[in-house]
């Protein structure tokens, strides 16, 4: 079975190799950060770096328990000092007490290049950033893309079947074509339990893991809809303050992404009625949802993740009383995107195209559907099949080889 080299992320890391910045690699637990680091270490060795000058510490391993004391890890690394640059790679760095001071001290006292990973967005909070003297750069890692999923799961198979599997099981790297649904969903639920225990409940005292799980399941059932602490409090019969705390800390675990609204007329970001999308659809589908499994919202979630993967800042657009699923921004580039499961009904097609008519100014307009159609251009927008949209990045990557 072919190994997936996470080329996009490796290229991003290489851009900052030997630069005086701490490389902070973030992503939901088990999305492939450790494998990415091993691939990067292999690239370092292939480029001529002495393996003795590559120091790797996985802080989830019991063999490294003594290094959870930051001073012990600092002393260990300093003892390896020699005349050549040392590459320091620390997996799940948040388990080290005072890791920010350790990293700062190593930068000061060694000729080194530092890479750390974490499964929590809290690592990038203002509070933490102030403790990291000098610059740091975040490289956010997502589960496998559709194209990467195809490499692992029999890329020669019929693409619609592969797409349906990807939509159903998500992109966690452990998934293999010979695994049963029961095995996959059991493993995904175990990952969710790990996230609750290690990335949420360990952060603060007096967090009720049962309530956290209920909030997560509620958020899974409401992907692509506006979610607020008030919604959660009313639905689960908990206090608004508890709902707000849980919503924030769950989002910091990178299980969900908050997407704010952008008012096209006022050209302002609205802080209310944000939507939330999950970082892996398989984890959602593994849940015993009471709500309808809205296929349109699932497709919307998939497009959101792909836009993030391609480096866009993504907002939900509002223009008067109308809504645009996504406004995607990158540099001077601007895209307006609608997502719809099917356009077989003329009234549905008119409804989905209507917001595009209200947009003033530059920017491409795209309507993505699961319908098996060839790319079509109308006065309002380009209409494209979802699989063709997902495969664009692969075609671009191949053209750059």
Provide a descriptive summary of the structure in words.
The protein has 401 residues and is of the alpha/beta class. Among the domains are: 134 residues, Rossmann fold (3-Layer(aba) Sandwich), CATH 3.40.50.300; 108 residues, Trna Endonuclease, Chain: A, domain 1, CATH 3.40.1350. The protein is built from 15 helices and 13 strands. Helix 3 packs parallel to helix 4 and helix 10 crosses helix 11.
Q: What helical percentage do the residues reach?
A: 40-55%
Strand count: 13
- Quick one: CATH class of the domain at 7-140? Alpha Beta
In terms of per-residue confidence, which ranges show pLDDT below 50 for 5 or more consecutive residues? none
The CATH architecture of the domain at 7-140 would be 3-Layer(aba) Sandwich
Instruction: Give me the strand/helix succession.
Output: HEHEHEHEHEHHHHHHEEHHEEEHEEEH
The helix/strand class is alpha/beta
Specify the overall morphology: globular
Describe the biggest sheet? 8 strands, mixed
- Strand content is 15-25%
Assign the CATH topology of the domain at 7-140. Answer: Rossmann fold
Give the structure's gist in a few sentences.
Helices cover 42% and strands 21% of the residues.
Secondary structure layout:
Layout: H1 7-15, E1 21-26, H2 33-46, E2 54-58, H3 70-78, E3 86-91, H4 99-109, E4 112-118, H5 126-131, E5 135-140, H6 146-152, H7 159-169, H8 181-201, H9 209-221, H10 229-236, H11 240-252, E6 256-263, E7 268-278, H12 281-285, H13 295-309, E8 313-319, E9 322-330, E10 333-340, H14 346-357, E11 364-369, E12 376-377, E13 382-385, H15 386-400
Parallel strand pairs: 1-4, 1-5, 2-3, 3-4, 6-8, 10-11, 11-13
Antiparallel strand pairs: 6-7, 8-9, 9-10, 12-13
């Amino acid at each position: 079975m072919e190994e997936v080299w996470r080329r996009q992320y490796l290229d991003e890391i290489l851009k900052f190799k030997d630069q005086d910045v701490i490389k902070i690699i973030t992503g939901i637990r088990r999305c492939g950060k450790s494998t990415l680091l091993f691939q990067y270490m292999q690239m370092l060795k292939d480029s001529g770096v002495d393996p003795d000058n590559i120091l790797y510490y996985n802080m989830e391993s019991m063999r490294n328990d003594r290094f959870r004391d930051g001073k012990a890890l600092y002393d260990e690394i300093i003892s390896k000092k020699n005349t050549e640059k040392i590459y320091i790679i620390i997996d799940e760095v948040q388990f080290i007490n005072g890791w920010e001071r350790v990293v700062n001290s190593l930068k000061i006292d060694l000729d080194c290049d530092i890479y750390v990973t974490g499964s929590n967005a809290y690592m990038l909070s203002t509070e933490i950033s102030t403790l990291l003297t000098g610059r740091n750069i975040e490289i956010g890692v997502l589960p496998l893309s559709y194209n990467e999923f195809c490499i692992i799961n029999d890329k020669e198979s019929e693409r619609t079947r592969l797409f349906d599997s990807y939509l159903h099981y998500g992109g966690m790297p452990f998934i293999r074509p010979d695994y049963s649904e029961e095995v996959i969903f059991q493993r995904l639920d175990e990952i969710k339990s790990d996230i609750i225990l290690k990335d949420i409940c360990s952060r603060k005292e007096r967090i009720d893991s049962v309530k956290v799980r209920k909030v997560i399941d509620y958020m899974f059932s409401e992907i692509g809809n506006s979610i607020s602490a008030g919604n959660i409090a009313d639905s689960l019969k908990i206090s608004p303050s508890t709902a707000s705390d849980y919503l924030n800390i769950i989002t910091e675990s990178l299980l969900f992404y908050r997407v704010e609204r952008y008012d096209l007329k006022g050209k302002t970001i609205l802080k209310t009625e944000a939507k939330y999308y999950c970082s892996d659809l398989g984890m959602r589908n593994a849940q015993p949802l009471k709500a309808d499994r809205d296929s349109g919202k699932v497709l919307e979630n998939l497009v959101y993740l792909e836009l993030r993967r391609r480096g866009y800042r993504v907002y939900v657009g509002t223009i008067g009383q109308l809504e645009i699923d996504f406004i995607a921004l990158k540099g001077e580039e601007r895209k307006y995107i609608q997502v719809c499961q099917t356009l077989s009904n003329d009234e549905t097609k008119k409804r989905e195209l209507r917001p595009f008519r209200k947009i003033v100014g530059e920017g491409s307009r795209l309507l993505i559907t699961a319908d098996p159609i060839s790319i079509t251009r109308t006065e309002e927008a380009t209409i494209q099949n979802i699989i063709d949209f997902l495969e664009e990045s692969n075609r671009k990557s191949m053209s750059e080889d």
